[in-house]
Amino acid sequence: MNPLLATMGTKLTERWLNLLVLPGALFLAVAAAGTELGHRRWHDLDRLRTTLDELAARPAMDRTGTAVLLVAGALLAGAAASLAAQFLGSAIQLYWLRSARDPLSYALVDRRRRKWRRRDGELEAAFRRATPLAAEDGEGVTVAPRSERRIQALTAARDRVAVREPVRPTWYGDRMQAAADRVQAAYGMDLAALWPRLWLILADPTGQQIRSVRTSFDAAARLTAWAVGYALLAFWWWPAALIALGCGAVGRSRARSALDSLAELIEAAVDVHGRELAERVGLVGTDSTGLLRHETGDQMSELFRKAD
């Protein structure tokens, strides 16, 4: 029992340091340095070194109690900053995944929809202009390599706006909406009503993969939250703006990758385990075979929504 508790304590301490103390301590260190240096002396390391030496030379710093209090205060302040970043990261996720409910959101949807339609039209035009070639095996046709590369580039450009015609203000919301729409079209299931029940029967490997991707999305949102914090520091020390840009760019890229993987895994879980859930609730027999019918999906949605 003691080794188990020791291992758990070590893991909790490591997690506390990695998630709370270290990011917050780094932010506070940059904030302190930036406040001391300012815009005009943004790179004056000698001034920063002198300030640290003066602080260390104070008589109170020779006392053990004072040093302990300073370290404890720094740790608590770093943890508080990290908790604020986590709270802001959660708010950023809600903002990313929101639906259009206000005039600004509707305007964003219209703008993204026009952009998507323009790029989709360019893609369709590229398909029409593609030069067909006979396949190497003599069966079917293919397209010239140059046309294929252009089609792939236009497809990627369109998908950077949305994988389907936009209905939400952001790419993130549209990506999850596309997953729900595909599940609805294929099986007649309401993914919002289905998913909590399906999650309960997923095996550990599948659940672990989904949790891992969701954790990555949470981390990307937190990194974006730190970008906001560093952007505020830029009012006192302009190099913090560069840190903010880096954090924002990396956070956006990681968030897109993680959410795309999450949507794919959710769809895959429905494909693989949807029939199992239908069996668990008694809508299909255990000896039935084949794909899950659309009528069964409708029944599952009605059952899980409690006929609301």
Task: Explain the overall architecture.
The protein is mainly α and 308 residues long. The chain has two domains: 13-98 and 170-304, no CATH class; 103-169. It is 77% helix and 2% strand. It has ten helices and two strands. Strands 1-2 form a two-stranded antiparallel sheet. Helix 1 packs across helix 3. The two termini are 49 Å apart. The relative contact order is 0.09. The model has no long low-confidence stretch (mean pLDDT 84).
Biggest sheet statistics:
2 strands, antiparallel
Strand proportion: under 5%
Subunit organisation of the chains = single chain
Structural class: mainly alpha
Number of strands: 2
Report how far the terminal alpha carbons are from each other: 49 Å
Q: Tell me, rounded to a whole number, the average pLDDT.
A: 84
**What is the helix fraction of residues, given as a range?**
over 70%
Count of alpha/pi helices? 10
Annotation keywords:
mainly alpha; 2 domains; two-stranded antiparallel ribbon; 308 residues
Write the layout of secondary structure elements.
Layout: H1 2-37, H2 45-56, H3 64-96, H4 103-129, E1 132-134, E2 141-143, H5 145-161, H6 171-187, H7 191-201, H8 204-233, H9 239-280, H10 294-304
Antiparallel strand pairs: 1-2
Helix pairs in contact: 1-3, 1-8, 3-8, 4-5, 6-9, 6-10, 7-9, 8-9
